[in-house]
């Protein structure tokens, strides 16, 4: 269950929504992350952008 603090925050956000420029910025960042994830998933990234596992201890 949501706390009372989050309900107050949601009501304040509903009364005063963020500016359109901030919404577009967040959507652009999400789209860029999704594009990079898709390119990595399909193997479209060049070799220099690939991450490699380093030998050594596994941190858990």
Molecular structure report:
With 60 residues, this protein is mostly helical. The chain has a domain at 17-43. The protein has helices at 4-15, 20-41.
Compact overview of the structure:
The protein is built from two helices and no strands. It is an all-alpha fold.
Sequence-ordered SSE layout with sheet pairings:
Blueprint: H1 4-15, H2 20-41
Provide a count of the helices. 2
Order of helices and strands: HH
Quaternary organisation: single chain
How would you sum up the major sheet?
A: none
Q: What distance separates the N and C termini?
A: 31 Å
Strand coverage percent? under 5%
Number of strands: 0
The amount of helix comes to: 55-70%
Rg measurement, Å: 20 Å
Summarize model confidence as the mean pLDDT.
Answer: 87
Based on secondary structure, the structural category is mainly alpha
Query: What gross morphology would you assign?
Result: elongated
Low-confidence stretches: none
Considering the chains and any ligands shown, give keywords for the structure.
mainly alpha; elongated; about 60 residues; about 55% helix
